[in-house]
Write a structure and sequence with these properties.
By secondary structure, this protein is an alpha+beta fold. The protein is built from 2 helices and 3 strands. The chain starts with a strand and ends in an 11-residue tail after the last helix.
């Protein structure tokens, strides 16, 4: 059974007010000996009331990322990672360097 994990690589914020405006996220899926990932950056929407940056948790920011992306885009990202693992398990393409 594959496990899919969303995480954060980095979060950019404004020094003036602490607003976290861009989240750099990762999606990693593992299925036995196979694994695949995706990386992206999402601009976040500034809320009316800011949570102190040091009080924010990864789960809070990932929830914001997913809300901005929307359910269809979140599913598409996860589906692409799943497809990468399927390609590893049963390759349909290959590559090589020809000899001189």
């Amino acid at each position: 059974m594959a496990t899919t994990t969303w995480g954060l690589a980095n979060v950019e914020y404004d020094v003036s007010d602490g607003f976290c405006h861009t989240a750099h996220w990762t999606v990693i899926q593992a299925d036995g000996e196979y694994s695949a990932s995706s990386y992206g950056a999402t601009a976040l929407t500034k809320p009316d009331t800011l949570t102190t940056r040091t009080d924010l948790k990864t789960a809070d920011i990932i929830a914001d990322v997913k809300a901005v992306l929307g359910a269809d885009q979140v599913k598409a990202i996860e589906d692409r990672v799943t497809a990468k693992i399927a390609e590893q398990k049963t390759p349909t393409k290959g590559s090589f360097v020809p000899s001189s």
